[in-house]
UniProtKB/TrEMBL annotation:
InterPro entries: GTP-CH-I_C/QueF, GTP-CH-I_N, GTP_CycHdrlase_I, GTP_CycHdrlase_I_CS, GTP_CycHdrlase_I_dom. Zn(2+) binds at residues 88, 91, 159. It is an enzyme of class 3 (hydrolase). Homopolymer. The gene is folE. Its EC number is 3.5.4.16. It comes from Paenibacillus apiarius. One of its GO terms (molecular function) is GTP cyclohydrolase I activity. Keywords: GTP-binding, Hydrolase, Metal-binding, Nucleotide-binding, One-carbon metabolism, Zinc. Pathway: Cofactor biosynthesis; 7,8-dihydroneopterin triphosphate biosynthesis; 7,8-dihydroneopterin triphosphate from GTP: step 1/1. Belongs to the GTP cyclohydrolase I family. This is GTP cyclohydrolase 1.
Length: 197
């Protein structure tokens, strides 16, 4: 009975070893002495960190929203200030900030904590902020089939601080609108004013 579990554990162990090995190689290639004390545990630490920040690959974001129930509420629902942490796919550098989601249900609603889990599933992988934004909107649209959904994502990108144009403190804001939010400017304005409060 332990067969599958053993197999999975072995695979996880092998991946871990491989990542540790390659992190060590990168350290050597950038000119480090991998035997000095401060770096001895670094490959293992980086590997454990990767398991956390790339945990999204283990999850299908659609399943996260899966549990929904019928409700008569057909007015704007907003969950704002959901924090996220992601890695930009161009530099593997962190970017992070807040997600705000608003939708108008049409019979199905998601548990509020499920929206936070959706944000985690989408952001804990290599990403670009624009895609995080549109994926959240598309998955909400697909699974809940609301009248409309609007997503605003704010992000600070370390690759913009540490390299290239070097502009610390600048924020990127991306939006995605689906359904009635597309045609209804008043609805968009209501959402935007509520997330600013
Ligand atoms: Zn980048």
């Amino acid at each position: 009975m332990a067969g599958l579990k053993d197999y999975v554990n072995k695979k996880v162990d092998t991946n871990r070893e491989q990542i540790e090995y390659h992190v060590k190689e990168i350290l050597k290639l950038v000119g480090e002495d991998v035997e000095r004390e401060g770096l001895l545990e670094t490959p293992a630490r980086v590997t454990r960190m990767y398991e956390e920040i790339f945990a999204g690959y283990e999850v299908d974001p659609r399943d996260v929203l899966g549990v929904t129930f019928d409700e008569r509420h057909e007015e704007l629902v907003i969950v704002k200030d959901i924090t996220y942490y992601s890695q930009c796919e161009h530099h593997m550098a962190p970017f992070f900030g807040k997600v705000h989601i608003g939708y108008i249900p049409s019979g199905k609603i998601a548990g509020l904590s499920k929206l936070a889990r959706l944000v985690e599933a989408v952001s804990r992988r290599l990403q670009v902020q624009e895609r995080i934004t549109s994926q959240i909107a598309d998955i909400m649209d697909e699974v809940l089939q609301p009248h409309g959904v609007m997503v605003v994502v704010e992000g600070e990108h370390l690759c913009m601080c540490a390299r290239g144009v070097k502009k610390p403190g600048s924020k990127t804001v991306t939006t995605a609108v689906r359904g009635t939010f597309r045609s209804d400017a008043a609805q968009r304005a209501e959402f935007l004013s509520l997330i600013k409060q």
